């Protein structure tokens, strides 16, 4: 019997019990193995194997990310050295990477293990932060600390000084990350099919005030100036360094560093188009729900996870 081993990546805080139960039941019926990193052993049934985090990606054939975009990004970062397909199951609020809703899980798992899917390759940013190496699939940002001055940094491209930023934050993003922090700062939306890097200043006071789009072959260097306030360095929205007052970040692009499972690319793009349009509406989620037809609103109010089968 084929003992395909699938790795589960769980949202760090949200309860994923119901979704895990669906996957465990499906795996038992299909003779597939499941694994999680040892740190999540207590969050899954005993039938799920616990594997050290540094061995998990090596041993599984694919990862199932249960959460939102943040969980998906973490799963992708873990596969940079050994890219494996990552299937995203929605447990978040507004995900652009995650495709599968919980009721769709059994069919999605059938297609995952029968290799009936396409792969969406994603580039990542390879960043040297003052000598520490990190990767980012969405963005890396230099963010000022409130009340302690502006983030002031020079920009060099392929070793040539380009200008400087004096702003609340400087956001360097991939096309995938163009819908995240960069978008909130006024940056352009970039098609995932495009190979590019976008640098967007947030609330610029002086210096470069527009988004800059560069080729993935160009090397980027952001260096804090002596008059910069302390800045935090965020990688995919996670704080990597809290109060840097000097130093530089060198950024390059690694192509095809992450593999995202796509079951219905057209439907996925249509959903994302709708999500982007909703982001620009000045309405709270409950107000948006009131705009739906009565029947659909009642259906959403009643919607529950399907029982394991």
Automatic annotation (TrEMBL):
Q: Name one Pfam family in it.
A: NAD_kinase
| Sorted UniProt keywords | ATP-binding, Cytoplasm, Kinase, NAD, NADP, Nucleotide-binding, Transferase
* EC numbers on record: 2.7.1.23
Q: What is its main location?
A: cytoplasm
Q: Where does the protein end up?
A: Cytoplasm
A GO MF annotation of the entry reads:
ATP binding
Report whether Kinase shows up as a keyword of the record.
yes
Superkingdom of this protein's organism: Bacteria
InterPro entries, alphabetized: ATP-NAD_kinase_N (IPR017438), ATP-NAD_kinase_PpnK-typ_C (IPR017437), NAD/diacylglycerol_kinase_sf (IPR016064), NADK (IPR002504)
What are its GO cellular component terms? Answer: cytoplasm
The UniProt entry's GO biological process terms, in alphabetical order, are: NAD+ metabolic process; NADP+ biosynthetic process
Positions binding NAD(+) in this chain are: 69-70, 138-139, 166, 168, 203
Needs which cofactor?
a divalent metal cation
Active site per UniProt: 69
- Catalytic activity of the protein: NAD(+) + ATP = ADP + NADP(+) + H(+)
Biological role stated in the UniProt entry: Involved in the regulation of the intracellular balance of NAD and NADP, and is a key enzyme in the biosynthesis of NADP. Catalyzes specifically the phosphorylation on 2'-hydroxyl of the adenosine moiety of NAD to yield NADP.
Give the family, as the similarity comment puts it: Belongs to the NAD kinase family.
PANTHER family for the chain: NAD KINASE
Q: What is this protein called?
A: NAD kinase
Q: Which organism is it from?
A: Micromonospora costi
The gene from which this protein is expressed is nadK
